[in-house]
Amino acid sequence: MDHLPLPLEGITVVAVEQAVSAPFATRQLADLGARVVKVERIDGGDFARGYDTAAGGLASHFVWCNRGKESIALDLKDPRGLAVVRRLVADADVFVQNLAHGAAARLGLDAATLCAAHPRLIAVDISGYGGSGPYADKRAYDMLVQCEAGLVSVTGTPGQPVKAGIPAADIAAAMYAFSGVLAALVRRGTTGRGGPVEVSMLEALAEWMGHPLHHAMHGGEPPARTGLAHAVIAPYDAYPTADGGRVLLSVQNDREWRRLAEQVMGSPELGTDPDFATNAARVANRGRTDELVADALGEIGADEALALLEKAGIACARLRDLHELADHPQLAARERWRRVGTPVGPLKALLPPITLPGGDEARMGDVPALGQHTGTLLRAVGMTDDEIAALRRDGVAI
Q1: What distance in Å separates the CA atoms of residue 110 and residue 105, rounded to the nearest whole number?
Q2: What is the pLDDT of residues 47-69, one digit of tens each?
Q3: Quick check: is 52 catalytic?
């Protein structure tokens, strides 16, 4: 079998992007071989660069979302800076932007304008709520969209709704933008034409809400917030162990309950006790069920608990923190970690989850410094050293 190149080799992407949704989408494209040119503001660049300094002095969001890109820093309010972007777009296959509503159109960088001028271009507009409707102008940060999409209403405990611990709305929009670009590239391969791609954070996250949404819309009650427990299955929760760990287990049927009672809890009589023998009974007696499981697991360590549960054929997991995720034995065994270059030196990063056996490994390029590639890219669009010096002198480029 021939060795295959990365699927997006030869594809050029230009992105006027910030924060998470567009940068995470274009990072997926870069990992698959595309050349991604990131256009940043001259006054600090992508504002995600300033979110924190946790990644060796760099912002963790920025390191996560921006490897493998070339950074050019331009003032798009200056006609000369905007002209550079237009020259870059003229040679690009894909353009992505997630500016505030109306900003791209004012610059002539909206998908409709660009696709009219460049029929083969795929132009992606990522917004909070879409380009029309009463919410089009509304600010759309991740937490706000999580609230508007109902995610917060089904996440948390009975007494306290909470937002997801990751930027779920941003990630949802990013992944639909990524898959939208791939679909548009396939269509261009058969028709020769690109075209606009529109993605909104609200619509992306609303799609992810499909199960609770359909449950509520079509006659059911909205699923209750139950923390780590399951609304209609017991036992299904995380239980503390003697060494301070927490083990989550899920009993899916009454046969499993009998095995749990006999092989893990050491109380085989509970398997046939009418108060616990069926799932309906266990849910009705959830407090007592959980107490019995917690008492049994609380006498042993997490490793022993997991071993007993596995042997009994009970689905289980260790409740890990982020340091434990970084040391996860499965990720280590599958050699999923690599080193990515950054302005502060190499940092660990996960291989992207799309694996394409028989071809090149994902291209996990360096995280760029602000404006690191400005000179190279300006020369690539035909500018002379004197013209570049003038742009730098006038504060149009850095």
Answers
A1: 5
A2: 999 999 999 999 999 999 999 99
A3: no
Please provide the distance, in angstroms rounded to a whole number, between the alpha carbons at the two ends of the chain: 46
Query: pLDDT of 304-358, one tens digit each?
Result: 999 999 999 999 999 999 999 999 999 999 999 999 999 999 999 999 999 999 8
Say what the pTM is.
0.94
Distance between CA atoms of 381 and 376, rounded to whole angstroms? 9
Catalytic-labelled residue, pool 75, 170, 290, 303: 170
Burial class (CB in 10 A: 0-12, 13-18, 19+), 80: middle
